[in-house]
Amino acid sequence: MNLVKRFLNAVPALGMLNIPPETLIRRYANDQDKYFFYGGMKIRYRDEGDGPVLVLLHGVCAFLETWDGWVSVLKKHFRLVRLDVPGFGITGPAPDKSYYVREKFVRVMDGLITELGLRHFSIVGNSLGGYFAWNYALDYPEKVNKMILIDTVGYNQKMPFLLTFASNPLVRPIARFAMPRFMLYTAVKQVYGNKSRVMRENQERYFEYAMRTGNKGSYVDIFAEMKRQNKNPDLARDIPNIRVPTLVMWGTKDEWVPYRYFDSWKKDLPSARFIAYEGAGHVPMEEVPEQTAADALAFLKK
Q: Which of 33, 180, 251, 268 could lock 284 by a disulfide, CB 3.0 to 4.6 Å apart?
């Protein structure tokens, strides 16, 4: 009996849970949540506020709530559309791994844009969401008015430990079954520059979304695709071809996509505007939302 009790106590700590999406909907969704059906997926999004349209794309392991701080400031000025990117959040895993490749996701994104009847809009992306944002702007420049990139993926780099570890061929089968709570809690601390700003409830939310049925597997598949793309020598080749007016934001204490890549963007896209946030980490829109939202507003309204 003691062994059974110990095992049951260990299940949450080891991240061997499978939380049904219905449970997460009750816990985290609200009346603004809507769903878009594409390719067998039920993609969660929120569409709120009035004014020019601003589309918000979160990063790896995140979810649409990462933009809550921005939404509270910007919904008075914009119509804000944000989603749980396929593979993450309540949306959950895509039908197959091809949806995590750049070309396929850009088509998914444009499917939502078409569904909502959006002809022109601005786009914001953080981390992996930034990668998808600038690639969307390359493919559909006529639709994108302005773009904001926040600590965005764009250059070949050393990948964060969680992504490297979980995408290791020997670890992948285990990671599809178990992602320990302490690893995900640690990852949340890593993406904040000021660790004192990390709230336990936010760490738990990151953990619980990772435990959404199927998400551990999709995380592994996305990490593996990021690892594959990271070896692509042409990963950053088209950055100089971006023609959309762009603002690049970066936290100086980013441990996941280090601050030195801020200079790479300056070199390859000199027409852009650049703002650094001293002491902030990989998710400055979440860590210092008032400051970053104010800067975004100034850029978008100009």
A: 251
